[in-house]
Amino acid sequence: MEVKKYQLPYGNGFQEVTLPEEKVLYDIHGNKADVQEDIAAATLAAVRCPIASQPLQKVVRKGDKVAVIVSDVTRLVRTAEFLPVIISEINVAGVPDEDITIIVATGTHRAHTHDEDIAVCGKDIVKRIKIHQHDSRNNEELTDLGVTSFGTPILIDSYVAEADKVIITGAVSLHPMAGFGGGRKAVMPGVSGHATIMHNHAIALAPKVGDGCNPLCETGILEGNPLHEDMVEVTKKLDPAFLVNMVFTPEGKLHEVVAGHWYKAWEKGCKDLVAMAGVPIKELADVVFASAGGSPKDMNLYQSCKAHMNAVFAVKKGGIMILTLECPDIKEPAIFTDWFSKSDVLQFEKDVRADFSIPAFVAFKTRCIVNSLTTYLVTKPENFEFVRQTGQIPVASLEEAWLLAQQELAKQGKDDYKITIMGHASATMPVLEA
Which residue(s) pair with 157 in the sheet? Predict the structure, then answer.
């Protein structure tokens, strides 16, 4: 039997494992795609030749109060490289700096420090343009725009709701509840009230207690996804004037910039992302090796669990998942990791329903995935105790994890097993063909 050595990203390095080549079904890296080296140039071309919209220079005009929504520091999408282009185009249209406000879409996160504003927006923009930190819990800074058909109260940051023109920015990405990130997420949850965000995200749980996660709210699903549809209703009420979104390859390089109508341009970005990150497979594997993609994607479990949520699409029910996640800050943030103290899954679900938050739901969904498989987690030895608390089996090396997996396969009497490898599982999605 011929063997082959495989490397999976782990922190700033790699973990290696030697596998029988005939057992490997797929080595998934995402599909080949063109790369744009100059983000500023790509952004300028996109905003001057937009999708289903006039160019940005014609969308805004002198006298407008313009709000530009940007992702916060937890979503580093290279805003500092494309934001100056947007501001310049608004200026050329006749809108001076003093009539522009940058809104940091914190969602439920904390406000930026001054240094974080510079990291996200760039030093020159911070000097020139007023920056407002959205606060979802400050009701005095929220405007009530009604209620969605799902019963979600539409509470929007007043700086945004009262602007003449709203420009939304961000990046299209795979999302484990909303199908895709980017687009309408700049508004909901980006600049929405806490009650709006919590009511919307609670849709990610199944309607009936005990049924766990809502199967319609899943990665890559838009049609029939009630959480996404509710987000769209919230954003439609605001009706942003223009969108600029980055589309990155699974390796984190810029593929394209989509700009124009807030939904149609973003929708094109979603389709193009799936063309890169969505990898068709004909068969599920008994064992899946997966990496989040190395640092910074495996800094902590909260970021890393995106690998769990995509890799699960490649493995058979009750199969084996082996993850390489260095996680030097594995317990950050505590509002996520503290939930793993709950080992009773039904009680876990009830507690999430009673005190819903995004970190709580992500922890619950991760626990459900882990409980449905045998999951080995290759990580730092100091993480072992906490890893056991999450229901995963900690190991120090990929070779050791593979040895344990082979023992488990032998126990199950499986000698005809198949393997799939996902080196960038956080950003690639296996799609099982019918």
Answer: 142
Decide if pLDDT at 408 tops 90.
Answer: yes
C-alpha neighbours within 13 Å on the C-beta side of residue 196: 33
For residue 292, what are its two tokens?
A: 């989040």
Give bridge partners of residue 235 from the DSSP assignment.
none
Give the C-alpha distances (Å, rounded to integers) separating 287 from 43, 230, 373: 41, 36, 10
pLDDT at position 75 over 90: no
Would the pTM of this model clear 0.85, i.e. be above it? yes
Classify 342 as helix, strand or coil.
coil
**Fold that domain 3-30+279-432 belongs to in CATH:** 2-enoyl-CoA Hydratase; Chain A, domain 1 (3.90.226)
pLDDT at 108: 87
- Return the pLDDT at 342: 87
Running DSSP on this structure, what letter comes out for residue 382? G
Q: What does CATH list as the number for 39-248?
A: 3.40.50.11440
**Sheet containing 374-378: order of strands:** 24-28, 419-422, 285-291, 315-324, 374-378, 393-395
What pLDDT sits at residue 251?
A: 80
Rounded CA-CA distance 37/395 in Å is 39
**1-15: burial string, b at 16+ Cβ within 10 Å, e else:** eeeeebebbbbeeeb
Residue (of 375, 355, 384, 382) closest to 425 by Cα position: 375
